[in-house]
Structure prediction request, 348 residues.
Amino acid sequence: MTCRWRATGAGPSDVRILALNPGSSSLKQALYEFPEGVLAAESNAIEAVGIRVVHGGSRFVKPVRVDDAVVEEILNLRELAPLHNPIAVRVIKETRSKHPGVPIVAVFDTSFHQTMPAIASSYAVPQDLEVRRYGFHGISYSWISSRVDTRRHIVCHLGNGASVCAVLDGRSIDTSMGFTPMEGLVMGTRAGDLDPGVILYLLRKGKSEAELDDLLNHNCGLLGVSGTSGDVRELEKSAAGGDKRAEFALELFAYRVAKYIGAYAVVLGGVDAVTFTAGIGEHSPSMRSRICRRLGFLGVELDGELNRASRTDERRISRGPVDVWVIPTNEELEIARMTYRELQLDRS
Prediction:
């Protein structure tokens, strides 16, 4: 079953919060009015701003009110998210300039995964290397977890960047992305899981650090396998026309997602619900079918008609004992409500 959120506790009424969601090449934004958590009809009188930051490292375990020290620390983490953290800092600075005196809250993609146990967040390397698994897409996972009332929940955030998360009683206990957003699933242009020996091999073959960074982030994944595109929509068209490399790329993507779902069923001790979200998860019934047909042994059984229906709302698309949901993610609203909660804590 789904559940609705409403702010609780003492707090200001009719607070307008601007949510800013900067990506590597885009900036999404929305203005909400709290405590109702609804879109505001007008764009004036902003009382607070919430801004998504991809990497919070070990320092930021929850949303935090922005000051100069916070800005500096976010920038110091840029090596862990070079495509995102510097952009977030630029957005913060521009917002402070445009809205002087308005409180700004940084909301971190990594903070949702701070509940992972050490056995899930650790790599088998010496501790003095100070590397661990952080996980990403946490704002999206937080939103989805609030929409589905279930205990053992596997959420698949499938977009150009893609990951899977094992959620137990609303808390992350494992996720496929790790130290950086490069680990885990096959993605649009990212390789995902890769033997570290491959990196050493390519270095010995003369690849520079910059060339490897570009290769693994921008020229692998679906694009690298298919040789034509990292976009599932384009690959589905090509595969329907007989392109075998496109078909193989799609199957590889589905195989990797299904493998992680199976692994997380072990982590959770079973599964009560699987949810698909983000661009591919929400809009590709074909990919959902490719993934779920491998999961019958877990009790996953799609309803073909519901899966193919042209709808954009929250919906259950299964008929077996395991619920399968398609739920549009709403990172902007989640950023705004996390910001509102942080402001409530400041006033309590």
Remarks:
- The mean pLDDT is 92.
- Residues 11 and 345 are 9 Å apart (CA to CA).
- The first helix runs from residue 68 to 76.
- The radius of gyration is 20 Å.
